[in-house]
Design goal:
- An eight-stranded parallel barrel has the order 1-2-3-4-5-6-7-8, surrounded by eight helices.
- It is of the alpha/beta class.
- Helix content is 48%, strand content 15%.
- Helix 5 links the parallel strand 4 and strand 5.
Length: 260
């Protein structure tokens, strides 16, 4: 299974002090040495972490393919078209969110916006992936649009896992709607995994490549890696968080070993 390392949180650390340290560019060489297969970055409309210059330097210098996550905002799409990463992954984006909260809205009018942006970038030989919820309807829409990849949103699974098996419920980050009996969490977790498996199988039938990501870490990734048909995982926050204690190369190697 391939590993895309999302390095956004290195830029988050930099932006916390508004200085030029650490530089996300340095991470791409460490990621290559550690066995990563791809670099993933998200150029948000509010530039809260990764900036235009970061993306340009990373694409120009990365020895690994670059997966650029982006919205369908016309200004952002123009930047992507100019920089021509290996892949563009369209993701939903809300300025007030801490992190991406779900898959793309595949209904009108967003469908039309996606269609226009997707074909504009495909004409520039940029591979297209759509970040979607694990549903048959979303997979079918991705195929209709002409995407080569879908990336299944694993955030719901990750939240359930953290509330069921971790200590999240005992912290100020607890998820109120998931403060329920463990037996119910277990059933919901099983359903979330089944949804991911079904969406993967459905995408495979359509000839779509399948990636997955969001909220994956060294504990919850084990069940995801067992889903036959998922070719790639994009993981960022947990790797960068572990690197604070182990160093980035070791953190990537440990994740790579878990999903091999």
């Amino acid at each position: 299974m391939l590993l895309g390392v999302n390095i956004d949180h290195i830029a988050v650390l930099r932006e916390a002090r508004k200085i030029n340290d650490p530089d996300p560019l340095q991470a791409i060489y460490i990621a290559q040495l550690a066995g990563a297969d791809q670099i993933t970055v998200h150029l948000r409309e509010d530039r809260r972490h990764i900036h235009d210059d970061d993306v340009r330097r990373i694409i120009e210098n990365s020895p690994l393919p670059v997966n650029l996550e982006c919205s369908v905002d016309p200004d952002i799409v123009e930047i992507v078209a100019d920089l021509r990463p290996h892949r563009a992954t369209f993701v939903p984006e809300k300025r007030e969110e801490v992190t991406t909260e779900g898959g793309l809205n595949m209904d009108e009018p967003n469908f039309s916006n996606l269609d226009k942006a997707l074909h504009y970038l495909k004409a520039r030989e940029i591979e297209i992936s759509l970040f979607i919820d694990p549903t048959k309807e979303a997979v079918r829409a991705a195929k209709t649009l002409g995407a080569e990849w879908v990336e299944l949103h694993t955030g719901h699974y990750a939240n359930l896992y953290a509330m069921r098996y971790g200590n999240l419920s005992k912290t100020h980050h607890s998820i109120p709607e998931l403060e329920i009996e463990r037996s119910k969490l277990t059933k919901m977790l099983e359903k979330a995994l089944a949804d991911l498996e079904e969406a993967t199988e459905y995408a495979d039938e359509f000839g779509l490549n399948v990636a997955a990501g969001h909220g994956l870490n060294y504990q919850n990734v084990q069940s995801i890696r067992k889903i036959e048909g998922i070719q790639e995982l994009n993981i960022g926050q947990s790797i960068v968080a572990r690197s604070v204690f182990t160093g980035l190369e070791r953190a990537i190697r440990e994740m790579k070993a878990l999903i091999a």
